[in-house]
Amino acid sequence: MSPLVGVLALQGASGEHADALRKLGARAQEVRIPKDLASIDAIILPGGESTTISMLLESSETFEPLSELLAQGLPAFGTCAGMIMLSNEVLDGRSDQRSFNRIDISVRRNAFGRQIASFEKEIDVLGLEDPFPAVFIRAPGVEVAGPAVEVLATVELDKGNEIPVLCRQNNVLVSSFHPELTNDLRLHQMFLNEV
Predict the structure, then answer these.
(1) CA–CA separation, 134 and 102 (whole Å)
(2) Residue-number span of the structural domain to which 78 is assigned
(3) Which cellular component, as a GO term, is one annotated location (predicted)?
(4) Is 167 one of the annotated active-site residues of the chain?
(5) Could you count the other beta carbons within 10 Å of the beta carbon of residue 101?
(6) What pLDDT, in 10s, does the model give residues 43-53?
(7) What is the pTM of this model?
(8) By CB count within 10 A, which of 11, 33, 42, 113 is most buried?
(9) Selected catalytic residue, list 16, 80, 167, 188
């Protein structure tokens, strides 16, 4: 049977992630409350606003059960705000903002600037033959990646300063950008290969 992948559907482009999963033969299930976590084989945390997502996870009483599943090794793919949620350190978040501490990265929110500084760029990704069309919208960036983290792609932030934008640690994949906003399914397939 194809894997059942939960897509956190509190904010962000959850529908686009679900469509990408279905195109690749996986089953997708929206996750809004704790019972939606039952039987999932993996989860995608989409973009949005990380502090809002954190508060919505708390108010829906979903943060703790999801945190437990992630700590037990549930495969996860975090895009944009999802990257922030899975990181072990948010450098400029709110003091009450919580993350899941599943990948050893320190992340800065809006590392590339505000909404007006959003951009698209073809990036080289380790393991992919052709460049990937990355869509950056108020994107976070990785300032520090721990020794167990595999940096799969970087983007030049300023002259000569490369910043990691796609990272993997074990079965956790995170991206600064929005792969669900393109027709390119290779990163979703890379994630499904871990499930």
Answers:
(1) 23
(2) 4-192
(3) glutaminase complex
(4) no
(5) 14
(6) 999 988 888 89
(7) 0.94
(8) 42
(9) 80
